[in-house]
Amino acid sequence: MARRLRADDRTRLALLVAVSAQLFVGSPAIEATQSSSSYAELVSEYIQGGAASQKAVLDLAALPQPKVTAMIEADARFLPEPRQRAAVMLHTDTAYAQLLAGLTSNGLFQIMAARRVVAVMKAGGRGNARTQALERRWYAFAVSLLTSNADLDRADFMVRDALSLYPREARLYVARGVLQEMRIAAIPVDQRSGNQIARHDRELEKAATDYRRAIGFDPMLANAHIRLGWIHLALRDSRAAENFDQALVVAAEPIDRYLAHLMRGGLAERESRFDAALVDYEAARAICPTCQTPFIALARIETALGHTARAHEIATALAALAERTNDPWWDFHLGGFDSSSLIWLRTEATAP
User: Which CATH number covers residue 236?
Assistant: First the structure.
């Protein structure tokens, strides 16, 4: 017999349904029900995409945790390798939806469930090049998901585990660097204490070292250049400009170009090169015309230039936006959530 839901349970369940619909664009919201599907059937539904994927996520989320664990232990090793890759992402998308809905403990359980499936693949001797590529990127994404949800100890465990398996994976060093940044951010610094400032800067340099390692393994990884530039910017290191310039040279993802332009604009603004800052902030707004950060930055620069009418015009345009995109600027600063990897992983896990 299903237990009676408390009011807050019903609210969170409704939110989970709404969130899961947003994860699979174009899918109508589906009522959450107690699933009687087998593990293989849930994975098959997820692979179909759209509303079927949403239903698989909701059905998996509705299962008791011991049931999910038993399914993995009993059935995961018998799935064909492509289905195992899909199973990893079924658990990951379920975790993401639950975390967004505020079901933190449930979401963390599903992340570790995905890791169990990865372990099953390895124990079974699976692992062609495609599977290994997914595993490496999944580990880095999982660390970013944990870090952005302030579960720093679990993120540390995950990245240590991953680096023991893939010691040359650039994205893992970026993920570890971001984790280090978040640990530093959690410790207040007395700006009157030279010792505390020096210690803070030394800790930041540890993150920078990881970003340099990432670039050494993959010079085309734009996010590593951006994060290294951000550290150099914080440390007032003149190499920041070079980092942002290089990020724009190698960036293939719009998010990376957006962030690089914002960072380079911020550097120009700090140096009172306001015309250069306007160019970069306008470029950022062109990439994401529904993100709020470029509007705020542009209005600030126009005000500094004495163009109050133009600043007011920009602020009015921001207020008039019918819809505002989830701004990657906040993901960058609040744990480095890697939305580009999530999209890549979903596509790779469900492709034939």
Answer: 1.25.40.10
